[in-house]
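Researcher: I'd like a structural prediction for the single chain below. Treat it as a standalone chain; there are no partners to consider.
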Amino acid sequence: MRAIAAVSIQPHPRAAAIAPRAEAREYRRVRPEPALEFVVGDITREASDAIVNPAGPGLVDLMIRQAAGPALLEAFHRAAADLPDHKLSPGQAIVTPGFELRAAHVIHCLPPIYADDPTAAREQLVAGHVQALRLARERRFASIAFPAIGTGVYRYPVDRAAEVAVGAVLGELRADAAAPSVRFVFADRAVLDLYLQAARIRLNQDPTRSDRGASFRDLGPR
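Model: Treating it as a single chain, here is the predicted structure.
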């Protein structure tokens, strides 16, 4: 598997108007409860410290770019240019300001193409989630929101993506008490149910239910 890189950049001047809001969220020390949550909603309206963007031709990427404004794409290209190959590859992650989003930052990762090599795609999907969480931890983010990465135009089977994503995230949350609170945000309940089932199997417990979805507070031994 190729080396994984994580790159961050300084905020673009257009982010100045939201800088106080971003700084206020960036340095929260206490992780809010619940630690792991699954909801139906619009990820572009999440007010977490960061949302994760599956960069590429998919619908989620388009929605995030439209909501953030044109400065997001400019910042993405500048950050990607600092990577070893001067482009974002599956398994890597970069961070930019959120600009006009409610989230202060966007962490970008490139989903793997499942049909090309399912084994490599699994490793890259794990790496993308891990790198996103490690970037969030390095920058002291208290919360991060993920979509169902890879399950759209990249054709990763949703049930398998759920198992991979939940396993990768739980591994990071259990390994570090300072890891951010994680929320998965889905466009429909059918996808939520598959991710929630993966979490129930991993944690061997039932979640706390809400109108939007469900959450887990006890993630097991660290």
